[in-house]
Design brief:
The structure holds two protein chains of two kinds.
Chain A (H helix, E strand, L loop, with lengths): L1 H15 L4 H18 L2 E7 L6 E4 L4 E2 L6 H18 L3 E3 L18 H5 L7 E10 L2 E10 L7 E10 L2 H19 L10 E6 L6 E6 L6 E2 L7 E6 L5 E7 L4 E7 L4 E3 L8 E6 L5 E6 L6 E6 L6 E2 L7 E6 L6 E8 L2 E8 L6 E2 L5 E7 L5 E7 L11 E6 L5 E3 L7 E6 L5 E6 L6 E6 L6 E2 L6 E6 L3
Parallel strand pairs in A: 2-4, 2-5, 3-5
Antiparallel strand pairs in A: 5-6, 6-7, 8-9, 8-31, 9-10, 11-12, 12-13, 13-14, 15-16, 16-17, 17-18, 19-20, 20-21, 21-22, 23-24, 24-25, 25-26, 27-28, 28-29, 29-30
Helix pairs in contact in A: 1-2, 3-5
Chain B lengths: L1 H46 L19 H16 L5 H6 L3 H6 L1 H4 L3 H25 L10 E3 L2 E3 L2 E4 L4 H4 L1 H14 L11 E12 L4 E8 L4 H12 L15 E11 L2
Antiparallel strand pairs in B: 1-2, 4-5, 4-6
The chains are: A alpha+beta, B alpha+beta.
């Protein structure tokens, strides 16, 4: 920008005083050039419509030594890394059948020509080696820019951990997240995130947790009653849910730091669907303590109770704007059917988002731009009755249908990277947890045993 | 004789004095005028390191100086492109910057080709950048390019260190991707079939945060300009600049092409 100013002044000078132009020009040129040399780099770039996925090749990692455990660890590691990158939604994975022969264990093994040209034609190459020795496994991983052989390194990492398949999985998750963070525009990957949900497989409806890809499923609560609507706090330290205590539905709190239930005030009658504000200091939920179910907000400790709605009808399922924390979307009965509304976090400025049908279970996207919710757009006698996941731009109320496969799809929840949505569906015959990319593609079933419902994706 | 000599001498002195006085006055005037012209405009501005506004950019094309940055852009852009094909030739072109600096008057004529060919040339150069990248194979993702739905975009680098684009092509690519993800086509007036390219500039600081989003050259379609600005504003973070990069920020010029599908 300095250049611009200098040039302005040169312009009249050179024209008015041609005879001195040599002199002027020389001097001005010096001054014009000087700031340019000091300036920071410029990038010039542009876009048309659409998004192109990065073509990435991930050859199997190489064994770094002869340890017999390597093959097992490598299998776990390679599978996990491949799946994580596939699931990220920003890569086009180059099929392994195209890869040149020979394993790559270190940067010196890479021949950029073969990887950068057809048929592989990868833009990025992930490779490395893994070796167990003693109790530990050491993984070295690289990410290199194949199309830029003069300066290929993007990322080089070394991990050391216990030589177990579980830790190999964790290392693969971490490395995948690093890659996704670099190439995905600074958004953290979700490979290390958790999904909390309600499962009946122990005989009662308890809160369970699993990795984002459905692995490692395990129970969180063992209350022996009915527990619903889990919602984990933004820092991941606490889990709020509602549970039936024999006479009333109360908000309960589980601490992951203490690994046990912690106390939380009881408000009486039916208290459901707790939802954390993005700063983790407040909690919104639905309570019928004063008669009809209304939305309330409390501090994280349960104190300082505020009532936000006063409509006299049913108000449930609050969800905070995860970016600003200044708005809440929730479900309110309007006429005979539930519809989705938004309001400021103090209860003012109420706006209606859906105008027809039966809409429930809103979840606000991490970037604050979208709501996903479950909607029977045509409800009533003669209507097809399918319940699908929809995405709506909050500012202009334009919506997109994400699921079309029939069955009842409900309780959508965003992943922290804003690229994935987890939801429950009975399309497979029983109620199970599914995940998909936020454009509705790549739908996958995550759970199979028992019935599983009401998923909640951790914030990080 | 004597008086004649005296008169003669008088005349000689007078001429010399006149010449002397004339030259002095001339030189003084020249210095004075130079001071007025040169200082009045830029004296205060030269010192101001980064404060320049974008206003000057429009005038650039008429002055020989801008040739340098522009040339550097395309050269560097082709440099990264050349990596997949043949860079050495393009490197040779780079020194253009130096000759211009040394002999301005002689090179003045140079603008003639500029006047006729430059405008066509620039787009062509960008198109060149675009094509070679893709030539590696159909699906290969060029760092410089997006194309979908009949619209595309391109990339080039220039500036101080000048090697950001070639060293950290992956970062530029991620940046491209992120902007594309955040550009919502439905914000553009649906009656628009196609529009001129809109150019934006913005900075990315070390932590990856964009700032100073400005429309450098409007497309003439307000809704398209706004949608482009919003695409950038919607982004909180592009991800931290590569740790190896020494600078505090990167300036980005980004263009958007819109063609209705």
């Amino acid at each position: 920008m300095n250049l611009g100013l200098d040039r302005n002044t040169i312009y009249p000078a050179t024209h008015m005083w041609r005879r001195f132009s040599y002199f002027f020009f020389a001097i001005f040129f010096c001054f014009a050039i000087a700031p340019n040399l000091l300036a920071q780099d410029w990038i010039k770039s542009g876009t048309g419509l659409g998004v192109e996925r990065i073509r990435i090749a991930v050859p199997e990692f190489k064994a770094a030594n002869q340890d017999p455990r390597n093959s097992e660890l490598l299998r776990t590691f390679n599978d996990t890394l491949w799946n994580d990158l596939t699931n990220a939604g920003i890569f086009e994975m180059v099929s392994k059948s195209f890869y040149p022969l020979g394993q790559i264990g270190a940067p010196s093994d890479v021949k950029f020509d073969t990887w950068g040209q057809t048929p592989v034609n990868a833009a990025m190459l992930v490779f490395g080696n893994l070796g167990a020795s003693g109790n530990n496994v050491v993984v070295q991983g690289w990410l290199e820019d194949v199309k830029n052989p003069n300066s290929p390194p993007v990322l080089a990492k070394q991990y050391t951990d216990n030589a177990t398949t579980q830790q190999a999985r964790v290392i693969a998750h971490k490395f995948a997240d690093e890659i996704i963070f670099r190439l995905g525009g600074g958004i953290n990957g979700i490979a290390e995130t958790q999904i909390y949900y309600v499962s009946t497989r122990s005989g009662h409806k308890e809160i369970w947790a699993m990795d984002y890809d459905g692995a490692n499923q395990h129970p969180v609560t063992t209350l022996g009653t009915i527990s619903l609507s889990p919602h984990v706090s933004p820092d991941g330290s606490r889990l709020a849910f509602s549970s039936f205590n024999g006479s009333a539905w109360e908000i309960r709190m589980f601490s992951f730091d203490l690994n046990r239930m912690v106390s939380f005030p009881r408000y009486g009658r039916t208290n459901l669907s707790p939802s954390w504000a993005p700063d983790g200091t407040r909690l919104a939920f639905s309570s019928s303590r004063s008669g009809t179910p209304e939305i309330y907000a409390v501090d994280q400790s349960g104190g300082n109770l505020h009532r936000l709605t006063n409509s006299g009808t049913t108000n449930v399922s609050p969800t905070w704007n995860r970016k600003t924390g200044s708005e809440i979307a929730w479900v309110s009965r309007h006429g005979d059917l539930p519809k989705i509304f938004t309001m400021s976090a103090d209860g003012t400025n109420v706006q209606q988002l859906t105008d027809q049908g039966y809409a429930v279970s809103p979840s606000w996207s991490p970037n604050g731009q979208f709501l996903v919710f479950s909607w029977m757009r045509h409800y009533g006698p003669g209507a097809p009755g399918s319940q699908d996941i929809y995405l709506m731009d909050v500012t202009n109320k334009q919506w997109v249908q994400l699921t079309h496969d029939g069955g009842r799809n409900d309780f959508p929840c965003w992943s922290p990277d804003n690229r994935h949505i987890v939801f429950q569906s009975n399309r497979s015959g029983s109620l199970q947890i599914w995940s998909m990319l936020a454009d509705g593609s790549n739908q996958k079933q995550l759970t199979t045993s028992g019935t599983n419902s009401e998923p909640d994706w951790s914030w990080k | 004789m004597a008086s004649g000599e005296i008169f003669f001498e008088h005349e000689r002195w007078g001429r010399n004095l006149a010449w002397s006085a004339g030259l002095h006055v001339g030189v003084t005037l020249a210095i004075f005028l130079y001071a007025v012209v040169a200082r009045g405009g830029t004296g205060s501005n030269w010192g101001a390191g980064g404060g320049g506004s974008a206003m000057g950019v429009t005038l650039v094309s008429t002055v020989p100086l801008p040739a340098n940055p522009i040339d550097t852009k395309s050269v560097l852009a082709t440099e990264s492109k050349g990596l997949s094909q043949s860079k050495p030739q393009e490197h040779v072109e780079e020194p253009d910057a130096i000759p211009i600096a040394q002999k301005n008057a002689k090179k003045r004529p140079v603008p003639q080709p500029t006047a006729t060919q430059r405008k066509p040339q620039q787009p062509v150069q960008e198109a060149n950048n675009v094509v070679p990248y893709g030539e590696g194979g159909q699906a290969s993702g060029p760092y410089s390019m997006f194309s979908a739905g009949g619209a595309k975009g391109g990339i080039a680098f220039s500036g101080g260190g000048g090697d950001f684009g070639s060293r950290f092509a992956w970062y530029v690519r991620a940046l491209n991707q992120k902007i594309s993800e955040n550009w919502l086509r439905y914000e553009v007036d649906p009656r628009i079939q196609s529009a001129n390219r809109v150019y934006l500039t913005f900075d990315v600081d070390r932590s990856g945060r964009p700032s100073h989003v400005e429309v450098e050259q409007s497309s003439g379609v307000p809704s398209l300009d706004i949608s482009a600005v919003r695409a950038i504003q919607r982004i909180d973070n592009f991800g931290p600049l590569p740790a190896e990069y020494p600078g505090n920020k990167v300036s980005v010029e980004f263009w958007f092409d819109y063609t209705k599908r």
